[in-house]
Design brief:
Number of helices: 31
Pfam families: AAA_7 (PF12775), AAA_8 (PF12780), AAA_lid_1 (PF17857)
Strand order of the largest sheet: 4-7-10-3-11
Family: Belongs to the dynein heavy chain family.
Radius of gyration: 52 Å
Shape: elongated
Structural class: alpha/beta
Helix content: 40-55%
CATH topology of one domain: Rossmann fold
CATH class of one domain: Alpha Beta
InterPro entries: DHC, DNAH3_AAA_lid_1, Dynein_heavy_chain_D4_dom, P-loop_NTPase
CATH superfamily of one domain: P-loop containing nucleotide triphosphate hydrolases
GO molecular function: dynein intermediate chain binding; dynein light intermediate chain binding
GO biological process, one term: microtubule-based movement
Length: 966
């Protein structure tokens, strides 16, 4: 080696054409990545490792061998292979590339159909790509398919057979081979260690591995990581001839991002701990952060405060929103804050964090007549800084009301609390991204994930492409139309798939393939693909001439740009626990947003918004009581969650985990674990290992967000009920007080009247006593006078009689009727009205009875006339003919009985027939009044049927024949 350096190994050198040792680093092109991003905003950065592997891959391809690229997740294997194949297609016109994405649901039949759809008959038994081209099949995640009960991967065994014999059996004709020519397989495989609890990749068989030249691409670290991050930042900030950041700020952003991704990868690793199954952080997240950072307005790129705040916001959205555990989230926020203090001035680190939204919050610019069916993308994703989320409430209220007015048949019942608004802003930001704007929404039942996505799509004017997921055929038809609309028509298309709609694992296989490669082989045949590419050629020639050599890449690029897939899952869904080993594209290509509703802040915000929406405790008198009510509602629901064991569904959900800081020396600090709150995690893992899964926990009741909504509704109904009861009590109390006041006034009046009456009574007593004294004196004088004159003693008796008469007059005065009051007058008035009503009713009944009597009299007259008519018709001839009938019908017997009854003759005959006897017996069973009534009724109806019109002559009697019914 040219120099002796312990840090450099022999593998860092190569022999050039002159036979000299040269470092692989020297082959890295020293070029600028200014505006190097592609249509998807992705930037591929060459390093010494990728240069070395690329050169070896070119040599292997020249020899016609297959290539297998292995490495940990997020190392850039797929990016390297795609870039390698793109350059090979550009240089070699005889190369055709087809991609096939493996998943745990991949089967041998799917690989069989894929190969058959891309080969054509050449001659004899030889088959190959169309036009004599070389078919290069790129297979991603070679070790993902599940093994059967014997530990065999069927799809890989078929691939091994194809590579062994370069032949493929025909399914229509058994034992007939199709020899395959010009077939090269390039595959990638993940070598990350997966614990058994989170799923692990099945190793491929050695018989298959022998057909590949295997290369390993390690995870970039140290200087390699720094060079990649700085180039990706440069390529994104200079996209579309944009202005880059200042050199010092550019280096600071790069350094702090490298430190953050290394710390996160060391601390937040995927593990069987609940809530950590999906933790996968790599360079893909760094690229997403910079893709959001490039939306910074150019006039604000010189403002360091604004750029740092936007970087913090994007880091929190890309990485922080994926974290589901509160202790992990707390550690992440502290880590970001500490790194900001380290790499940026103190004034930047202590500045208040800003919120950024990707929509215009000015409600004055809204226009009416808006239609969500518009497919033209007119909204450019920009970041608008807001101090608080309360500033966007009027804007979101306007959007929500407009949505409910436009879709009145299926309105959204959203409560725009701070918790809901924060998630709505996140979903809107993700969907506004042009590259891989796919969302994985995770939340418990009742979180209204689809409603949040629908409102965000309405704000972006993105239409929702409905897919029928009832069975696999309709699901594939819906995906086919969505891919055609996004790739061929270039229109933005959005698909919302809920967890209950995933009826088959093949649905996840199709979604995983679309997310990774933008295509799913079973959707289109080769002829359909060719027709789609032919339809795209005019557009490619006009605007994208660089894709003329590979129109399929342009089609897939448009699919990735315009197709947005939204998955709504529950936290306990099997996809989250097995996606990393079964469907990695769902985790790697989707932005994950966890809707955590158990936080105290979310409960308080929802309760506050509920009270404000329904105008409860909003007056000035309740300003002191309102915070206490909100805190009480949140505390009650939090206690219910704790009692029902629903808060620690993912573990570590405490908002403020307890930590104790102690001073340690360097040796002790060096032995610390990288995991946040390692002691708490260890205790949690021990509890999980020792728990009894089969034993039901006490108070095991499901509690979800809808339970909290029902609790608030119940509180409101009880509050209104109690308010109504209190109002009724107040009204009753007021009525009682008014009645008491009136009674008091009446009592005062009665008291005054009694006092007045007493005074009058006393005056009358005095007058009466005086009169009695006078009368007694006069009577005495009179008696004395009579005694002197010698008059009889009747005088005294007369005086006594006079006094008795006065007493009788007084008693009769007491029995005199009292004066009538208002009640007596009302009673008499009611009595008179009743008597008048009865009298009128009686008169009316008499009138109706007279009319009925006249009518019955007229009917009786008509019946008599009818009897006379029939009497005239009954002559001797008719009687003779009736007499001649030996067995007369029942009807004739009935007619005879009726005639005899009308004539008043005796109808009994000892020789009468049985029919007549039965009829007579039935007639005798009724009383005479009934017979008379029936006869009169029959006669009345008969008369009505045969009534003659005035002036019409009577018809002569007609003879009656035997057996004829009249």
């Amino acid at each position: 080696l040219p120099d002796y350096d312990q840090d450099i190994s022999v593998f860092d050198y190569y022999l050039d054409e002159s036979g000299e040792w040269e470092l692989w680093r020297s082959r890295v092109p020293d070029e600028s990545y200014f505006d190097a991003a592609d249509l998807l905003g992705e930037v591929f950065v060459e390093t010494d490792q990728t240069i070395r592997i690329r050169l070896l891959m070119e040599l292997v391809r020249m020899s016609g061998r297959n290539i297998l690229l292995v490495g940990p997740e997020g190392a850039g294997k797929s990016c390297l292979v795609n870039d390698f194949l793109d350059k090979q297609v550009t240089e070699d016109k005889k190369l055709m590339v087809r991609r096939f994405v493996y998943s745990s649901n991949s089967t041998a039949s799917s690989l069989q159909r894929f190969i058959e759809s891309n080969i054509h008959h050449r001659q004899g038994y030889d088959y190959g790509a169309r036009g004599g081209k070389t078919l290069s099949v790129f297979i991603e995640d070679l070790n993902l398919p599940e093994a059967d009960m014997y530990g065999v991967q069927e799809v890989n065994e078929l691939l091994r057979q194809v590579l062994d014999y370069r032949a493929l059996y025909k399914l229509q004709k058994p034992f007939e081979w199709r020899l395959l020519e010009d077939l090269v397989v390039i595959a990638t495989m993940n070598t990350s260690f997966k614990p058994p609890a989170t799923g692990f990749h099945t190793p491929i068989s050695k018989r298959l591995k022998r057909h590949f030249a295997v290369f390993r691409l390690p995870t970039p670290v140290a200087k390699t990581l720094f060079s990649i991050v700085t180039c990706v930042l440069e390529g994104n900030m200079s996209h579309n001839q944009g202005m880059g950041l200042q050199q010092e700020l550019h280096e600071q952003i790069t350094e702090v991002t490298c430190s953050l991704i290394e710390s996160v990868q060391d601390a937040l690793r995927a593990s069987p701990t609940p809530g950590r199954l999906h933790y996968h952080f790599n360079l893909r997240d760094v690229a997403r952060v910079f893709q959001g950072l490039k939306n910074c307005p150019e006039e604000m790129r010189a403002d360091e405060d604004y750029v740092v705040s936007l970087w913090q916001h994007e880091v929190q959205r890309v990485m922080g929103d994926r974290i589901s555990r509160s202790d992990d989230s707390t550690w992440f926020e502290r880590k970001v804050k500490d790194l900001t203090k380290t790499y940026f001035p103190e004034k930047l680190a202590n500045s208040p964090s800003q919120f950024f939204v990707t929509f215009n919050t000015d409600t004055k610019e809204f226009y009416t007549g808006r239609a969500v069916t518009s497919t033209k993308i007119t909204i450019k994703p920009t970041h608008q800084a807001v101090v608080s989320l309360d500033e966007v409430i009027p804007c979101l209220d306007t959007y929500l009301s407009r949505y409910n007015d436009e879709f009145s048949t299926s309105p959204l019942n959203l409560m725009l609390s701070s918790h809901v608004i924060s998630h709505l802003v996140r979903i809107h930001r993700i969907l506004s991204i042009k590259n891989s704007g796919n969302v994985l929404l995770v939340g418990p039942i009742g979180s209204q994930l689809s409603d949040l996505a629908a409102l965000a799509l309405y704000m972006l004017e993105y239409p929702i492409h409905t897919i029928d997921c009832s069975y696999r055929g309709s699901f594939l038809d819906g995906l086919r139309s969505a891919v055609r609309r996004a790739g061929c028509d270039g229109k933005t298309t959005t698909i919302i798939i809920k967890d209950r709609e995933i009826l088959d694992d093949s649905y996840l296989d199709a979604i995983n393939s679309l997310l990774i490669s933008g295509e799913y082989p079973p959707l289109f045949s080769e002829d359909e693909i060719n027709s789609l590419l032919q339809a795209l050629m005019p557009s490619i020639k006009r605007k994208f001439s660089s894709f003329l050599t590979d129109p399929m890449k342009f089609f897939l690029t448009r699919v990735k740009r315009n197709l947005h897939i939204i998955l709504c899952l529950q936290p306990t869904h099997k996809v989250l626990s097995s996606a990393s080993s079964h469907y990695p594209g769902i985790l790697s290509k989707c932005h994950i947003n966890w809707v955590k509703h158990w936080g105290e802040e979310a409960l308080v915000g929802k309760a506050k918004h509920f009270l404000q929406r329904h105008s409860l405790f909003q007056d000035d008198a309740s300003s002191v009581l309102r915070p206490s009510v909100v805190a009480t509602l949140a505390s009650i629901h939090e206690f219910v969650l704790q009692d029902c064991h629903h808060i620690p569904w993912a573990g570590g959900m405490a908002i403020n985990p307890e930590t104790k800081s102690k001073t340690k020396d360097l040796k002790q600090a060096g032995n610390e674990t990288n995991d946040p709150y390692g002691r708490n995690l260890l205790m949690e893992r021990i509890a999980l290992a020792n728990r009894q899964v089969d034993v039901a926990m006490p108070n095991e009741v499901f509690v979800g967000p809808t339970t909290y909504d029902r609790f608030l509704q119940c509180f409101m109904s009880l509050l209104k009920k109690k308010e109504g009861e209190i109002k009724n009590l107040l009204n009753d109390s007021r009525l009682c007080l008014n009645t008491l006041c009136e009674a008091r006034k009446d009592a005062d009046k009665l008291k005054h009247y009694i006092t007045k009456t007493k005074s009058e009574f006393e005056e009358a007593n005095v007058t009466t006593a005086k009169l009695l004294d006078d009368l007694t004196a006069k009577s005495t004088v009179l008696e004395k006078l009579k005694a002197k004159l010698g008059v009889g003693s009747d005088t005294l008796r007369s005086f006594i009689a006079m006094i008795d008469n006065e007493i009788d007059d007084d008693d009769s005065y007491l029995f005199v009727d009292e004066e009538k009051d208002e009640l007596d007058e009302d009673f008499e008035r009611i009595q008179v009205a009743k008597m008048k009503s009865r009298k009128a009713k009686t008169v009316e009944e008499i009138t109706m009875a007279e009319r009925e009597r006249e009518r019955l009299k007229e009917e009786l007259d008509e019946a008599e006339d009818q009897v006379l008519i029939w009497q005239e018709r009954l002559d001797r001839t008719c009687c003779e003919r009736l007499k001649a009938i030996q067995n007369p019908p029942t009807m004739i017997g009935m007619v005879m009985l009726m005639a005899m009854v009308l004539l008043g003759k005796q109808e009994f005959s000892p020789h009468s027939s049985g029919a007549a006897s039965s009829i007579r017996h039935e007639r005798k069973s009724f009383d005479g009044g009934t017979i008379a009534d029936d006869t009169s009724s029959s006669g009345g109806h008969s008369k009505k049927r045969n009534r003659l019109e005035p002036g019409q002559p009577r018809a002569p009697p007609q003879p009656t024949y035997a057996g004829t019914e009249h």
